[in-house]
Automatic annotation (TrEMBL):
The HTH gntR-type domain, residue ranges: 11-79
Protein name stated in the entry: GntR family transcriptional regulator
Source species, domain of life: Bacteria
Signal peptide: none
PANTHER family from the UniProt entry: GNTR-FAMILY TRANSCRIPTIONAL REGULATOR, HTH-TYPE TRANSCRIPTIONAL REPRESSOR YTRA
Alphabetical UniProt keywords: DNA-binding, Transcription, Transcription regulation
Keyword tRNA processing: no
Gene3D superfamilies, per the entry: Winged helix-like DNA-binding domain superfamily/Winged helix DNA-binding domain (1.10.10.10)
UniProt-listed SMART domains: HTH_GNTR (SM00345)
A Pfam family recorded for this sequence: GntR
Length: 115
């Protein structure tokens, strides 16, 4: 499972890890029922602390994307809800736009120009 993080991304690392796993599941790289590598293995691969990965995995469990089973590790329960993923991405876009001084209405106009 190949995940990458953007070191220039201002979001907390656990959110970036959760997003990377969420994208892997949504894209079909990791399928429902498939086990994930251990938190320690993921942390080593990403160059982050294992607690950061565990926090991300717990967030995904709370969303219903992952399932924790004692003695069996963490496995994918279901793909993330596409609408929820888009809401999260839209929130990130609006936050980024605000950092650059743009209002939501301006973002909507930009999106309309692209479609």
């Amino acid at each position: 499972m190949l995940l990458t993080l953007d070191l220039n991304d201002p979001r907390p690392l656990h959110e970036q890890v959760a997003g990377a796993v969420r994208r892997a599941v949504a894209s079909g790289t990791v399928l429902p029922g498939q086990r994930l590598p251990s938190a320690r293995e993921l942390a080593d691969a990403l160059g982050v602390n294992a607690n950061t990965v565990l926090r991300a995995l717990r967030d995904l469990r709370d969303e219903g994307v992952l399932e924790f089973r004692r003695g069996r590790g963490v496995s994918v329960l279901r793909p993330p809800d596409g609408r929820e993923v888009l809401r999260r991405m839209a929130r990130e876009l609006l936050d980024e736009a605000e950092r650059y001084g743009h209002r939501p209405e301006e973002v909507i106009e930009i999106i309309k120009e692209l479609s």
